[in-house]
Design goal:
- This is Tetratricopeptide-like helical domain.
- It comes from Propionibacterium ruminifibrarum.
- InterPro entries: TPR-like_helical_dom_sf.
- The protein is mostly helical.
- It has helices spanning about 25-30, 35-55, 60-70, 75-90, 90-105, 110-120, 125-135, 140-160, 160-175, 180-195, 200-215, 220-225.
- The protein has a single domain (about 20-240, about 285-340), classed as Tetratricopeptide repeat domain (Serine Threonine Protein Phosphatase 5, Tetratricopeptide repeat, Alpha Horseshoe), CATH 1.25.40.10.
- It contains 12 helices and no strands.
Length: about 350
């Protein structure tokens, strides 16, 4: 009979125990090795399911992660998965509890930005400000420093302090924190705030500046420019790779399926198979930004967490305060072509 509080709930999703262990990375498998073999298999199955579902069905992914947590709550990697899926499912109170737990278990300050983000999402602004101050005093990596700045700017916006939000972002832009991808996100957030304040011209200027740095087309800059009535440069749009079946939209005759040749069906050695689930300790992730009408600070769910093949949806911001157009001097901010990449730490 399970211990009190560990009973399997009626809505716990089923999992198959017939899976490839290598769908989880070696560090994750190593952390689960201390569990009894049968229990470890159940936990692994739920973690894999959570990782595969986090984008398409975050609620179900969260139920899988909670199932893993009921079986192995003392393992940081399990608590991290529970935090990330709760965040993706917009259960920010649960995500906050889990992120605090994993930060306490690991002693890792890199979780401070997303902890502040969760506090912001549930309206605990004073707590979020304290966490942000703690983050500024910690030795965060460059990616997490940028996340903290985005969270702080989003929080100031929620509190009706748009001038301070713009100042925070502008200071980071002028200080040239991070490489091009981080600077693109900071400029995007700046433009987002200007658009929210009614400064259409300023927003277009700053979305253009962000687009010149967003070489990977990870931001929806083209769509934002179109929504503001601006002409979108061709290189701001991702090109369609006709070999990519997810992007190729023209109807085609289906190709006949081919059986794999002998010896080609399985991955060799310890290489991770396609679709493998990785965690923060393996692959840092830089989520999508958004301030005025998307995530708190644009931190994005897997800020400090596991990469399940994409980034979770971001928290909904509080209602925008009534404010007139923000007036800023944009001419003195360095243009993208002058961006110096002095940071030695990669963004991604």
């Amino acid at each position: 009979m399970p211990a009190p509080g560990l009973e399997r709930p009626a809505d716990e999703p089923e999992v198959s125990l017939d899976f490839d262990d290598r769908l989880l990375s070696a560090p994750v498998r190593a952390e689960l090795r201390g569990l009894p073999k049968e229990l470890a298999r159940e936990v692994m199955a739920h973690l894999i399911a959570a990782g595969e579902l986090i984008e398409e069905d975050p609620e179900l992914a969260n139920r899988h992660a909670q199932a893993a947590r009921r079986r192995a709550a003392r393992l940081p990697i399990v608590r991290e998965a529970a935090a990330e899926t709760a965040y993706a499912a917009e259960d920010y109170a649960t995500a906050l509890t889990e992120y605090r737990a994993v930060a306490r278990m690991t002693g890792n300050d890199e979780y401070l930005p997303v902890i502040a983000d969760c506090e912001r999402a549930i309206g605990r602004h004073d707590h979020a400000l304290r966490t942000i101050r703690q983050g500024h005093e910690a030795r965060l990596g460059v990616t997490q420093r940028v996340e903290l700045i985005l969270v702080e700017a989003g929080l100031r916006h929620d509190m009706g302090q748009d001038d301070e939000a713009l100042r925070v972002l502008r200071s980071a832009i002028e200080s040239k924190i991070g490489k091009a991808a981080s600077q693109a996100r900071l400029r995007y957030a700046y433009a987002d705030l200007l658009a929210a304040g009614g400064d259409t011209g300023g927003a277009i200027t700053w979305f253009m500046a962000a687009g010149r740095l967003d070489k990977a087309h990870s931001l929806d800059i083209a769509e934002r420019l179109e929504s503001l009535g601006a002409e979108v440069p061709d290189d701001f749009r991702a090109s369609i790779d006709e070999t990519d079946e997810d992007l190729y939209v023209e109807e085609q005759e289906p190709e006949p399926e081919q059986e794999p040749a002998d010896g080609e069906a399985d991955a060799d050695g310890d290489e991770l198979p396609e679709g493998a689930i990785t965690f923060h300790s393996d692959v840092p992730v830089e989520p999508e930004p958004g301030l005025a009408d998307e995530a708190p600070g644009g931190a994005g769910a897997p800020v400090a967490g596991w990469d399940a093949g994409g980034t979770p949806d971001e928290p909904k911001a509080a209602a925008e305060p009534e404010a007139g157009p923000a007036t800023v001097e944009i001419e003195t901010v360095p243009e993208p072509q002058d961006l110096q990449t002095d940071e030695t730490e990669e963004d991604e």
